[in-house]
Structure formats: C-alpha cells, structure tokens
Amino acid sequence: MKSCVGVCNECPGRGIVREGSMQFLFIVLGATFGFLFGFNIAIIAGALPLFSSAFDLSTFQQGLIAAALPFGAVIGVAAVIFTVDRFGRRPVLLGSSVAFAIGILLGALAPEFVTLLLGRAIAGAAIGVSTTVAPMYLAEISPARVRGAAVATFQLMVTTGILIAYCISWILTASGDWRLMFAIGLIPAAISFAGMVWAPESPRWLLLSGQSTKARKIFKTVQPNMETAEMEKIIQEVETLKVESSGDDLWSALFRPPVLAFTIFAAMTFLLQQLCGINEILIFAPLLFKEAGLSGANSQLLATVGVGVVLVTVTIVTMLVIDRLGRRPLYIWGFVGAFVSMSFIAANYLFPGVMQPLYVVLAFFAFIVFFSISIGPLPWIYLAEVFPLPLRRSGMAAVSLFNWTWFWIIVLVFPSISAALGPGIVFSFFAVVGVFGIWYTWKYAPETAGIELEEVEDTIEKDNPNYAG
C-alpha cells in the first residue's frame, strides 16, 4: 500500500493535514474568523422577527439593523488600511476578536434599538477586518500546493457558522430568546482570541518588515516540509519585490497597469458574488421559503437549516478538489449552475401555481451547491493570491472596501426593491447576472492553482493576454 508523506497531489485537500499538524491547526485558527462572519450574518434570520416584535420596530428600523453589519464592515476595512502592514496580521486579528466580543455582547444585552444597532455595527467592523486579514494570513502561511484548500477553509468556517446560526435559531425560536441567539457568538469569539494569542505571525509579513530570521523559524513551523532552497527562493523573491515597489505609491499602483487588471478582476469577483443572489437567500431565507409555500416559522427555519447543511457539505467537497481541478473551471461552471437555478426560481414566481413548493426549495438548494463550490470561496482565494506581496494589504483592503460597500447597499435596498418589483423580476435579474458571470469568468478568470504567491503575477501575465502589462 502506498503511503503519503508531506503534500500529496493525489489526495487533494488532505495535503493540509499531511503537510504538518501544526500547520493544519494554524489554518483552522485563522479560519475561525470565517465562522464568526457566517454566524453573525445568519443569526439575524432567526433573531430579526423576535427583537422586532420586542422593540416594536418599523420596517425601516429592521432594514437599518440588517444593514448595520455591512456598514460596520466598511469601517473595519478602512481600519485595516492603517494597521495590517504596520502592526502585522496577528495583532490585527486579535483586535478583531475583541471587537467581535464587544459587538455581540452589546447586541445580546441591548435594552433598546440604538444599542442593538451599535452592537451590530461593531460586530460588522470586526467582520470587515477579519474577512480582509484572515484570508491574507491563510494564504501567506500555506504552501502553494494546498493554498486553495487552506483559504477555502475560511469559506468552510463561514458556511459552518451559517449552519450553526440557523440551527440555534430553529431551536430557540419557540422560546423567543433572541438574546441567547446573539450571546452564543461569544464562544467562537473567545476561541479565536485564544487561538491567535498562540498562533505565529505571517512569515511573509515578517519578511516585508525586515525580520528574516524570525520568518525562517516560522516557515519551518508552519511548513515543516519546506526545503531550505525553496525557503531561500521565497525570501529572495520577497526582497526583489520590496525593491521593485519601494518607490511606488502603494495605492496609485493598484490603478496602473499591470496591477490595474488584477484590481478590476478581484473587485468584479466580489461584485458578481454580491449580485448573484446569495445574500438575499441567506438573510431573508425564512421569508423566501414562506413565499415558496412553506407555512410556519419553524418550518421555514428548518428549511433554512437544510441550506446550511448543503453549504457546509459542498464547501468540504470544494476543499478536496480546488487544488486539483483548478480555480478557473470551477468558477465558470459555478455561474452556469447559478444561471440555471435562478432561472428556475424566477419562473416559479413569474408563473405562480405551475410548480410545487418542494421544487422551488430544491432549486434554492441547487443554487447553494453551485455557490458553495465556486462563487462563494473563489473570490476570497483570488483576493489572497493575485496581488503582489508589497501591494497585498492595499489591494485586499481596496477590494474589501468595494465588496462591503456593495453588500451594505444591497442589504439596505433589497427589501424595498423586492416589494416594488416582485420576486419574479428580482430573481430574473440574478439569472442575468449568472449569464454575465459565465462570459466574464471565461474571458478573465486566471488559473493560480499550485503557483507560489511571489510568482502569481508573472504567471498570469504570461498565460492570459488580458493581463499583459
């Protein structure tokens, strides 16, 4: 029987574990912030009707609560711009854990609307910080051959957080205890803080800050199978990149060739992620299932739990195949599936009574499958990969700011637009986004699987003429 040592290309996804148990643990700790992201996004689905009744909130106030999280995330991303390169990835993630705890506590103890709104905004700021820095951290500590699976671990934890939030909402809905729904989020916040106290700094950030001796030690810890020659090559490439970018304004460089093409592509992946319809399904899932014909709050939340199960299961599959099949094919087929699924859902609303509610729910689940294997994780992976190391902080922050601004706008206006146009038109729009996504990814999506971070830019420019400088 053949035994696998180190990274095994024939066993995609499992190479993370075989690369070293310490590395696997660090990846899980970094990805815990994804759990906090997913939990705080999804718990609102069960809590919103309960605290809206308790505080007698208007429809506008409910919309403000839903939009407070992405609004806070915009503020959090702005904070990343001034901190992550100055202080390092690890201290910023520690600060994010503290902000999560404060925001969750304020939400759980809120005596009135304003305190609840403030708590959600602070939790949102923590999300903005962690969703920018955690994928960066995961990419920088992982070997190239399993980097896709490592960053996809963040998306796995996002989907796990969503599932747990839905389960908690389903369990506690009968009691109406929305405060406990929020308070449970303190547990992963404490775990993430304790984990990052123990976790190492990113070795690539240490190289950027001139601490090569510490970087070598951490490389040996997080990638114990790395050859000395490979390590020295990475160190030399980082030094070269530092010299080449030393005279650049790191912000203006994002908007000049050849980096401009990467900035546009990374921003487009998140714009398409926002416009494909996933946020509306997750945040307003109980309402959508009610409109599909499922009656009773518990029945709707139970169907939503099913969505969470599919999210987690398919994301695990994604981790096993993403470094084997590559980014580009998965991305293209994800939009094909999204188009078909959304077309089916739109037809149900445009032609009511034609299909049974079960078929509509199955179409929702089909969309979740394609999202989880493609449109969900790949923007995070590309974001952590495509920018040169000296520009990674500014590039990821700029794109994250763009992403969360759009998220805030969509969450704020979706209920009004849906009410005005009707779900048939809204889901038809999502289907059109799927068609555009197929074209865009076919033309512009690069392949980055198995390429060292320091070599990604040159490889993409060589293989794809759309990125030639």
Radius of gyration: 22 Å
What is the 3D shape?
A: globular
Distance between the termini: 49 Å
Q: Kindly state the percentage of residues in helix.
A: over 70%
As residue ranges, the low-confidence spans are 1-19
Counting DSSP E segments of at least 2 residues, the number of strands comes to 0
Tally of separate helices:
21
> What is the CATH H-level superfamily?
MFS general substrate transporter like domains
CATH fold assignment: Growth Hormone, Chain: A
The CATH class name reads Mainly Alpha
Let me know the largest β-sheet.
none
Strand content: under 5%
| Domain module count | 1
Q: Can you write the helix and strand succession as a string?
A: HHHHHHHHHHHHHHHHHHHHH
- Mean pLDDT reading: 83
The CATH level-2 architecture is identified as Up-down Bundle
